[in-house]
Specification:
heterodimer, A: mainly beta, seven-stranded mixed sheet, B: four-stranded antiparallel sheet, 0% helix
């Protein structure tokens, strides 16, 4: 069964450093998403991406965040200068027309 | 704006007992509705979804949910809970092409 994959599973970084979280969506999917979940809290929408551009983004997704689909298979989330409050589980998701399929997540720890 | 509420933060049931997790939503049109389960340290697994048609939908692991438009609800049920069902359950609402909004989650504990 096809699945969304994410790497790394756990990323530890120093405050102020740049991080890139990688996702490989399901190959024929058209819509791509990033969500995050701060420990013990709800899953929050960050951004959706369709047709090689951002289709919607939340207030959380400020200028420190960017997304890219560089080669038609990967979908990346970059945080330019990480803050302590960026520590969270980051989930990638993709969908064709129905329900989104979520990846296993990347746990980001900012020290 | 779309929103989802899950009134119960934490529910504890005995193994073998029935379960109902509540979900209420606010949405302008007929929404797409989902239930996801998250085991500790794991990702989100889709349990079931409602797009249209029969308002009682069956999912994996013996779960079902009923869409009630008049009550703006999509409650999740299971007739007999197993210890392995202990997890966090998230209700979500969305629309094709737009983002999906998740509820705050309900943590289910199962007593032996």
């Amino acid at each position: 069964e096809p699945e969304v994959t994410q790497t790394p599973s756990h990323q530890v970084t120093q405050m102020g450093q740049e991080v890139i979280l990688r996702c490989v969506p399901i190959s024929n999917h058209l819509y791509f998403y990033w969500y995050r979940q701060i420990l013990g809290q709800k899953v929050e929408f960050l951004v959706s991406f369709y047709n090689n551009e951002i289709s919607e983004k939340s207030e959380i997704f400020d200028d420190q965040f960017s997304v890219e689909r560089p080669d038609g298979s990967n979908f990346t989330l970059k945080i330019r200068s990480t803050k302590l409050e960026d520590s969270a589980m980051y989930f990638c998701a993709s969908r064709l027309t129905g329900s989104p399929f979520f990846g296993p997540g990347t746990r980001l720890t900012v020290l | 704006a779309q929103s989802v509420t899950q009134p119960d933060i934490h529910i504890t049931v005995s193994e073998g007992a029935s379960l109902e997790l509540r979900c209420n939503y606010s949405y302008g049109a007929t929404p797409y509705l989902f239930w996801y389960v998250q085991s500790p340290g794991q990702g989100l697994q889709l349990l079931l979804k409602y797009f249209s048609g029969d308002t009682l939908v069956q999912g994996i692991k013996g779960f079902e949910a009923e869409f009630k438009r008049s009550q703006s609800s999509f409650n999740l049920r299971k007739p007999s809970v197993h210890w392995s069902d202990a997890a966090e359950y998230f209700c979500a609402v969305g629309d094709p092409g737009q983002n999906f909004v998740f509820g705050p989650g309900t943590r289910l504990s199962v007593l032996p």
